[in-house]
Amino acid sequence: MEIIRVSDLVVGYGSIVVLRGLNFAIDKGRITVIIGESGSGKSTLLKTLIGLMPPLEGDVFIAGERVDFGSERDLMKLYRRIGVLYQNSALLNSLSLYANVALPIRIHHPDWPKKREDALVRTMLERVGLFGEDKYPFELSGGMRKRAALARAMILEPDLILCDEPSSGLDPITSAGLDNLLLELKTNHGVTFVAVTHELRSIARIADRVLVIRGETIYYDGEYADLAVSADPYIRTFFLREGDL
Amino acid sequence: MRLRDEVRRFFSLLTDEIFYTFQYLLRRRGILPGEIVHQLYSMGYRSFPIICLITFLIGVTISLTSVAQLRLFGADIYLADLIGIAMITELVPLMIGIMLAGKIGASITAEIATMKVMDEIDALTTMGIVPERFLMVPRIIAITLVVPLLVALADFVGIFGGVLVARLAVGMPPSAFLREVFTVLTLHDFAVGLVKSLVFGWTVVVAAGYKGFFIERGAEGVGKATTESVVLSIALIIGIDCVFAFVLY
After folding, report:
1. ipTM over 0.95
2. Angle (deg, nearest 10), helices B92-100 and B48-72
3. Do the beta carbons of residue B62 and residue B83 sit within 8 Å?
């Protein structure tokens, strides 16, 4: 089942086109990784998918509904359906870990009883393996901040979680732990992820499907398992570090 | 960016903030519970000492400067009138505005600009939270509640500075000074001082938010935005004060 469908999408800044002719769909319960060289437009595409940058042309459909990026109502509907894990976690430093995770509840469901909020926050913290809810973000390690941000992104159980460089800035052990967490959330809780990343080891661990961006468009769209047998020299150089371009 | 675009963006934020504030007052949603109290503490409680000190020193300085001139004409008694009117209608609002710009405005800009650089503003947006409401409305409400208290305190302390100088330099008893002050001052003067201070307070918060939200990306942008916020606030305060002077006198 499709969560997102992108149709003839053109993204960019003002009159500058970064990516054009994008057509793809993201399926439920899978991890799709978007990769590409630095400056290829991955982040621009992510910003469009999360509603921070309207597309220049084309359409984005979430669960079959077209998103009108000019409509605040449609954007709010989009935001309710997605969660975002930012590269630097983007936790609010003035709030405790608990308050950060509870923030979407407190804003969107202020009428929820404290007990219900409490139970949900604790479940999410447990799910991402975090304790010490009274701590502040600046007291947490990079890996813990990412886990907390993931708990916050999942708190209202969105259809899809988009991750911007989830392993960025983490040591290999913490990075592997985060990858395992994403896999566990996908397998046991059916969470759908779209991740933009450069980390080949991380891609190897988590990716079900890979979208490679090159030359202002999607150069490769396929299963991760098929990459190893690809004869394309660019793909072999990018993933297998074989040959020169 | 062209000045016209900057002005348009500033007024766009200003109108948004007015809308969000009234919307919050009607619906009580969109900001964190307890945030207004937190802002009251950081804006009010932490500003009291410095505002007391500055307005007291201004009261003393203006009194000493004025008394030397008034004495030449044997008009020492008018020191009370001068201090009363100058402090209540002009100096207290202006000093409160400038102090708020330096203390609270700079802090608001630095906080919001850092949040912007750290993607926290984007994170709020993608959580379906309107950052301009979530971050600014508690501050606007807090400044609205804090300013009258600051004005009352600053009026008292400023006049106390005048009382002290009148007693020590002219030998005027405090009771005579205060009687003269309250003879010359009307309720209208206190209201003018209060309204001006409130307008300056709102100006500081909106200007600070504007510089914070529209920061150019990067850590160095935070420092630049903070400085610009203080300069913009003070320039706006003086400009608005000039408009008040034209309207009132």
Report:
1. no
2. 150
3. yes
Quote the pLDDT of residue A227: 83
Residue A158 has pLDDT above 60, yes or no: yes
Residue A214 phi, psi (nearest 5): -160, 140
A236 contacts chain B (CB < 8 A) = no
Whether B129 sits inside 8 A of A80 (CB atoms) is: no
How confident is the model at residue B217, as a pLDDT? 67
Whole-angstrom distance, CA of residue B97 vs CA of residue B234: 8
- Option in B120, B128, B129 nearest A90 (CB): B120
| Averaged pLDDT score across all residues of chain A | 91
Phi, psi of B227 (to 5 degrees): -65, -45
CA distance A225 to B96: 66
Q: Hey, of A107, A145, A194, which one would you mutate to test binding to chain B, going by the most B CBs within 10 A of its CB?
A: A107
> Model-level pTM?
0.91
pLDDT, tens digit, for every residue of A197-208?
888 889 999 999
Q: How far is A80 from chain B (nearest CA, A)?
A: 7
Q: Identify whether the C-beta of residue A195 lies closer than 8 Å to the C-beta of residue A206.
A: yes
- Residue B228's pLDDT is what? 96
CB–CB of B125 and A51 under 8 A?
Answer: yes
Rg of chain A, C-alpha, whole Å: 18
Could you count the other beta carbons within 10 Å of the beta carbon of residue B22? 11
Other C-beta atoms closer than 10 Å to the C-beta of B69 total 11
pLDDT at A115 over 90: yes
Residues in Cβ contact with A7 at an 8 Å cutoff, skipping those fewer than 6 apart? A23, A58, A59, A60, A61
For B185, the enclosing helix (H) or strand (E) is none
Q: pLDDT category, B1, cuts 50, 70, 90?
A: low
User: β-pairing, A57-62 with A65-66?
Assistant: antiparallel
